[in-house]
Amino acid sequence: MKLFSKRLFYGGSVFIVLIILISGFLVYLLEYKQKSLSPAEAASGNKTLDSQPDWQLGSYTDNIDLTTLAGSVKIQNNAEINLLGKTTSSDINNDQAPNVIDNDYDTWWNGYLTYEDQTHWWKIDLGETKNYISTFALWRTASGPITFRLYWSLNDIDYTLILPGPGYVWGPCNLPASCQSVISSPISARYIKIVANREDGVSPMDPQIKEFKLYMSPPATHTSASTQIDGGDNFWLWQTFTPTQTVPANTAVSYRFRSSANGTDWGTWSASQTPTSGNPLDISGLVTSRSGDTKYRYLQVETTLSNTDGASTPTVDAYSVGYHTEVKPNKPVAQTAVIQ
Ligand SMILES: [Ca+2]
Ligand SMILES: [Ca+2]
User: Fold this and answer.
1) Which ligand lies nearest to the CA atom of residue 105 in the structure?
2) 3-state secondary structure the chain
3) Residue that finishes a domain, picked among 216, 248, 267
4) What is the pTM of this model?
5) Ligand 1 mean position, distance from CA 315 (Å)
6) Is residue 2 part of a domain?
7) Ligand nearest to the CA of 319
8) pLDDT tens-digit profile of 178-220?
């Protein structure tokens, strides 16, 4: 009897200890499972561009306006391209070539034509291809019948005539206000060459170019800096893009995205997207987040602002990029991002 009680006691104790151990293990398992699978438990990150310094970190075309409304991105319509410091050259009086872009109307390049010379040229290298060049201004004088012809080029070898158009006489112009010429189809160019051409064969002439200016039409583009939007070491998935913007009549804003593992080598730009203000766009399918063990932790956003009237401007106040780190959340349910 005594022996039986002892056995029952030990047996019962072992049973209770086992129950406690198993229960504890089950509770631990349950908690671990919840931690792994619940989207609410997955670490999330967010990067927002909002302030003037944020926007200034990126790269942008000369017709982006970051100052009229500090902290926002707008279009500067008919924006002057800054030519200061660009490389100029000419086939005569080369030391005078920089005088054409020094913002001083009392200094000039003289393309002196002797009896034997038919033409002389002046040239500027913009350093990179500039898009949407739409307006040219050339303050010039001439001591005889001379035509100034403008050409553009991408490679400094093949040049295409811009101005004057057919039948257009493009002689002296000394009055800044009336020396602008607008072309109907904006061009992309790296080099602009101006050729002073003798229109009679009789006398030596002094074609002088005092100032030359270039202006751009929309669209205007802004691109975030290469490592500005960084998902960090534990990055997992690019998820949402939410703009805060105002898009009045005759204007439009669109965005493209691309990702990179190192901030240097980039994937291709996504198709152009037009999310509406305050509505998250699902970008998980637009850019690569992971490939094998490679994490594409850097994201770049290109913003394009345009108008159809040459005067209005949309305003991008901010945008926000949402991502997940470490633990992959459940596949997101189809989002309600509006794509127009
Ligand atoms: Ca802002
Ligand atoms: Ca000058």
Assistant:
1) 2
2) CHHHHHHHHHHHHHHHHHHHHHHHHHHHHHHHHHHHHCHHHCCEEEEEECCHHHHHHCEECCCEECCCCCCCEEECCCEECCCCCCEEEECCCHHHHHHHHCCCCCCCEECCECCCCCEEEEEEEEEEEEEEEEEEEEEEECCCCEEEEEEEECCCCCCEEEECCCCCCCCCECCHHHCEEEEEEEEEEEEEEEEEEECCCCCCECCEEEEEEEEECCCEEEECCCCCEECCCCEEEEEEEEEEEECCCCEEEEEEEEEECCCCCECCCCCCECCCCCCCEECCCCCCCEECCEECCEEEEEEEEEECCCCCCCEEEEEEEEEEECCCCCCCCCCCCCCC
3) 216
4) 0.71
5) 9
6) no
7) 1
8) 788 888 888 999 999 999 988 877 778 899 999 999 999 899 9
